[in-house]
Amino acid sequence: MVTQDIANLDDIKLLVNTFYEKVQKDDLIGPIFNQKMMGRWPEHLEKMYRFWQTILLEEHTYSGTPFPPHKQLPVNQTHFDRWMELFTSTVDSLFVGKLAEEAKVRAANMAYMFNYKIEYFRNLENQ
């Protein structure tokens, strides 16, 4: 039974590594991520450690703008729903507590915003 909350960088690494292992094997979103990350998974994971460390632990190790690299991805709401399903199930399988809940809220907000912006830019290009 899961009894602990996200508390430190090791927990962030466990969350990120477990989540992206699921992503890489997923039939729907795995091919998109694997093609985009070709040979750069370690670099991406390091960036995700810093991102979530900054968001959840308030240890400011990430700087950057997360949206631009995602702008041209061939994704839609179905892909973001699957991403959230995998993320939520990963968090729930590993952690329980305030920061675990915060991670899911932040991920949902990010998925919504990314999908909205991708659709917005896609619609601009198609006018």
What features would you describe in this structure?
It holds the Pfam family Bac_globin. GO terms for molecular function: heme binding; metal ion binding; oxygen binding. InterPro entries: Globin-like_sf, Globin/Proto, Hemoglobin_trunc. Keywords: Heme, Iron, Metal-binding, Transport. The protein is mainly alpha-helical and 127 residues long. The protein has a single domain, classed as Globins (Globin-like), CATH 1.10.490. Helix content is 69%, strand content 0%. It has helices at 9-25, 30-36, 41-57, 77-94, 98-125. Helix 1 (9-25) crosses helix 4, helix 3 crosses helix 5 and helix 4 runs antiparallel to helix 5 (98-125). The chain is globular. The model has no long low-confidence stretch (mean pLDDT 93).
In short:
It contains five helices and no strands. It is an all-alpha fold and 127 residues long. The longest helix is centred in the C-terminal third of the chain and has 28 residues.
Q: List the domain count as a whole number.
A: 1
Radius of gyration: 15 Å
> What's the level 1 CATH class?
Mainly Alpha
CATH topology: Globin-like
The CATH architecture name reads Orthogonal Bundle
Strand-residue fraction?
under 5%
- Biggest sheet details: none
Q: Can you give the mean pLDDT?
A: 93
